[in-house]
Amino acid sequence: MFSRWYIVITTIGLVEASGAAYATEARYDCAGGARVTAQFSPPDAAHGQVALTFDGSGSKIILPQARSADGGRYAGDGTEFWI
Q1: In what order do the strands lie in the sheet with 35-40?
Q2: Nearest CA-CA partner of 55 in 21, 82, 30
Q3: What is the pTM of this model?
Q4: pLDDT tens, the chain, 83 aa long
Q5: Could you give the CA distance from residue 34 to residue 41 in angstroms, rounded to a whole number?
């Protein structure tokens, strides 16, 4: 359903998540006007992940944390989210 998403961050707002499942929530305003909300797993989670919700369509995908030499990287099924 989704091809690769390359997100250029123009504005970041960090807020504390209300649920216990995720440690941090961030909202991203991307180049081209797209908006994405990312909910990150807690740092002490056995397997890191991010849940991405795309504003407008409400589509949601969950990506596992992937190896990265620099920054947080989440990837799976042809989709990559790298911050």
Answers
A1: 9-16, 24-30, 35-40, 49-54, 60-66, 73-76, 79-82
A2: 30
A3: 0.68
A4: 444 444 444 334 434 434 445 678 999 998 888 899 999 998 888 889 999 999 988 899 999 999 988 878 999 989 999 88
A5: 23
AA letter at 77: D
Location of structure tokens 């799976």: 76
Query: In angstroms, what CA-CA distances link 72 with 28, 32, 55, 58?
Result: 15, 22, 22, 23
Neighbours of 51 (CB within 10 A): 17
The whole-angstrom separation of Cα 43 and Cα 28 is 20
